[in-house]
Amino acid sequence: MPRIDDCLVIGCVEKRIYCKGMCKPHYNKDYKTKHANRIKKQRHEYHENNKTRLNQESKIWKMNNPDKVKIYKANEYKKHKNKYSISAKKRYQNNKSEYKIRAANWAKNNPNRRLNIMKTHLKKYGTIFNLSEKSYKWALESWSKSIKKRDEKCVCCGKSEDCHAHHLLYKQYMPELSLNVNNGVLLCSDHHKELHYAKN
Questions:
Q1: Where in the sequence is the domain holding 144, given as residue range(s)?
Q2: Structural domain contains residue 162
Q3: 20 to 30 A Cα–Cα from 117, which one of 8, 28, 108, 192?
Q4: pTM value?
Q5: Among residues 73, 97, 70, which one has the least CA distance to residue 84?
Q6: pLDDT tens digits for range 100-134
Q7: Which residues lie below 8 Å from residue 180, measured CB to CB, with a gap of 6+?
Q8: 136 domain residue, yes or no
């Protein structure tokens, strides 16, 4: 039989009464449940009345604690990974042309960063063939020339001007076949763009 000063909640290990026959954790939980709407309203009003100050304090804290922010974002992404990926895909599909323009503008305004990304990209695939990024780039150019010499025109429409060598199995999925001439066809710029945009 429970003692008079025990918490009324069955199975509670706290045992010390704080208010209304309950320990402090259970009383707080009960209070928040009963007054959830009022608490939510008070918090909203407080935030609205102190928006500028709270935003400034938040910015300062984020600047002073970049590692904590990074960890928090990573944990949030792990928790809601599926939700983020679905919403990102929907956003991209609804604003595809805008994303393409933004990416082109970024590449134009950040040539050095784009060059570093390309170097990393070439180095990553070059390691498969034991080649440096420069050697792999030259090998890709030779592969492209071989495709152009073999096909001579776009395999879709027969156009011979402004043609590009296209990987049938994309480098990101089958990098070991990226220099195989049987893994390439010649496409005009329109059909090449069409294929890559369809992939996205």
A1: 110-199
A2: yes
A3: 192
A4: 0.50
A5: 73
A6: 889 889 888 988 888 888 888 888 888 888 988 88
A7: none
A8: yes
